[in-house]
UniProtKB/TrEMBL annotation:
One of its GO terms (biological process) is vesicle budding from membrane. It comes from the Eukaryota. One of its GO terms (cellular component) is multivesicular body. The keyword Transmembrane does not apply. This is Vacuolar protein sorting-associated protein 60.2-like isoform X4. InterPro entries: Snf7_fam. The gene is LOC116198080. Keywords: Coiled coil. Residues 1-36 are annotated as: Disordered. Belongs to the SNF7 family.
Amino acid sequence: MMKRVFGVNKEKEKQPPLTSIEEASNRSTKRGESVDEKIRKLDAALTRYKEQIKRTRPGPAREAIKARALRALKQKRIYEGQRDVLSSQSFNLDQVASAAEEIKDAQQTV
């Protein structure tokens, strides 16, 4: 409705260019690598927390360290879920790209 009243700028009306399957796959892979890096950092933090828990005496300090470790563990699980989703997306994109290549090859042979 608003477009009819005020009109639309021609440049804004254009859609952004579509990305290729390879670009989308590369972007998905890159995001997966950044999630892997976050998981590695959380693993390092968890090992530090484990050592701190061993060294501290039972009490509020130890419980605070345990709470931090549990938060880090929850974050790690979330990141692992994201990594799994990204890897499956990347796999699916690779499958689509290979299917498209096979279709192009079949068209050229015919």
